[in-house]
Specification:
Oligomer: single chain
Shape: elongated
Helix content: over 70%
Number of helices: 7
Largest sheet: none
Length: 113
Amino acid sequence: MGNDYRIQKLKEFVRGWINYFSEAEMKKLVGETDEWLRRRIRAIYWKQWKKVKTRYRMLKALKLPEGKVHEMANCRKGCWRAAKMLNGALTNKIIARLGYITMSDYYLKICEN
């Protein structure tokens, strides 16, 4: 699945889910689910950067210090653990700039009206 298609499907899912359950008080649940979704997105990007060379190049593009780039690029942990380490590099602002929608923002937008 390509990133554009994934972004589109996630938007459809979030909008449908929030619109369906908008009457419920679920601010905490939406926040926890949002955290999990962002970590899953980071894990997907980590999987896409299969080779150490690609990871090195992409982490360097995120403007991390050289030592941290080398340490993370050569990490042999699983993608879920690496996604937790990517939290500092692939920030929430970057994920939003890529086009991913956050559940909490959409929930607050729907509940205000």
